[in-house]
Design goal:
Helix Hairpins; 96% helix; mainly alpha
């Protein structure tokens, strides 16, 4: 039984690793979602800023204001690009976490299957042992009945 107990310990460790992978994937998913939301907010804000200033330029606007607008728009574009890179990195991390979770779930499944097989083998072995004991007991009963029958017939015939 110690073989199955060892496998149960391996299963417990594999399940803990799987649970840790679930937690890591959830954290990666949340980080990815937050990065996407931040990127969308920056993109929306940039669009709103451009729209607001476009209408302002139609009314009036000196060269100095146009340059400030363009400089800020460039920096805002860089911020959007940086955030998009962060989204990509978060997506890559999420994919790595997903792959690790799949691998750990497979390990849990493999160890579980091995335990089930070992338990089935032990049960089969016990069944064979019980059948063998039953067969031996039946054979002894037949021999006893046979020898008692011979003894009884010997007494009846007077050969004893």
């Amino acid at each position: 039984m110690s073989g199955i107990q060892s496998l149960l310990l391996v299963l417990e460790a594999a399940e803990k690793e799987r649970d840790d992978a679930v937690s890591a994937m959830e954290a990666a998913r949340q980080a990815h979602q937050a990065a996407r939301q931040q990127s969308q907010s920056l993109t929306d804000w940039r669009s709103e800023y451009q729209r607001r200033w476009q209408s302002q330029f139609q009314q009036s606007g000196g060269m100095e204001i146009v340059r400030c607008y363009q400089d800020f728009t460039v920096r805002l574009g860089e911020a959007v690009s940086e955030q998009d890179r962060r989204v990509d990195l978060a997506e890559q991390q999420l994919a790595r976490c997903r792959a690790q979770l799949i691998e750990r779930e497979r390990r849990v499944a493999a160890v579980s299957q091995l335990i089930e097989r070992r338990q089935a083998e032990l049960q089969h072995k016990r069944n064979r042992q019980e059948q063998k004991a039953t067969d031996e007991q039946a054979a002894r009963a037949v021999r006893m009945a046979s020898s008692q029958g011979m003894a009884a017939s010997g007494m009846a015939t007077g050969t004893l």
